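User: Run a structure prediction on this.
Assistant: Running it now.
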Amino acid sequence: MDLSFLPALEKEAKLVEKRIKKDKAEKVINSTSRFIVESEAIKKVYLIPASHIQPISLVDQFKETLIITYPLTIEDHFNEVLKLTKAMSDERRLKILRFISSQSCTFTDIVKELGMAKGNIHHHLSILRSARLLDIHLKEDNHTFYYQTHKGITNNLKGNLDLLLQ
């Protein structure tokens, strides 16, 4: 087994640990995983960096505990710009972003609004999630994700583009 990624996982865990001491936990959870926990039932959240699930975060709940496995932070401005621009280069994905920009919506809401097949919507949401363009709200109904456009989209694109072109 190749364990060469372990130092990167340890470094990431230490960085997040430092951030939690300085920032609000909600901010760290959101910036790390793009999840927003809005459920009073959740009492503990564990953030676990991973290298094998690039680039999407996963979430599991056990009673009052939420376990979020998120991808390692990799400073690669070229690939970040590429993911962002590819994700936003499709008319259907732009329609999804526009629809969920003002309110959080369920998968079913998005399917009804756009009239596309569920598989196609799932595909487009996966691409938008992997580009970190969506926030996922976890509310009291822990079986339903509520999607909303990440408010920092333009800042992320501009920042990564500026760094890429320096």
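The first strand starts at residue 35 and ends at 37.
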